[in-house]
Specification:
With about 90 residues, the protein is α+β, with helices and mostly antiparallel strands. Helices cover about 35% and strands about 25% of the residues. The protein is built from 2 helices and 4 strands; from the N terminus they run αββββα. The chain has a 4-stranded mixed beta sheet with strand order 1-2-3-4, covered by helices on one side. The longest helix is centred in the C-terminal third of the chain and has 21 residues, at about 65-85. The mean pLDDT is about 90.
Length: about 90
């Protein structure tokens, strides 16, 4: 899916991401972020640590593959948090 399709789907599904926020326009060092951004023609799916700093989960050259992968990652996290009755209030 494209970035725009991803954003629409994410909004419609209202996935539980726990304490994490989702960022898709840039790479950040802010704590507790899951993101997908493009740098030098490469889409990078990343996560940041609780005290800042990031690590790359996966790099892909195709936007559709990157956002499909990122969505599946978030869906897995949602399912895990839902099964364990974890919610952020």
């Amino acid at each position: 899916m494209s970035k725009n399709e991803f954003l629409k789907k994410l909004k419609a599904k209202n996935l539980n991401t726990g304490e994490y926020i989702i960022v898709v326009d840039y790479l950040t060092e802010e704590p507790l972020v899951m993101g997908c951004t493009q740098e030098s023609g490469v889409w990078k799916i990343y996560e940041t640590k609780e005290r800042g700093g990031h690590f790359i989960i996966k790099e892909l050259t195709d936007e559709h593959e990157a956002f499909d992968y990122f969505y599946q990652l978030l869906l897995s996290r949602n399912n895990y948090l839902t099964q364990n009755n974890y919610s952020v209030t």
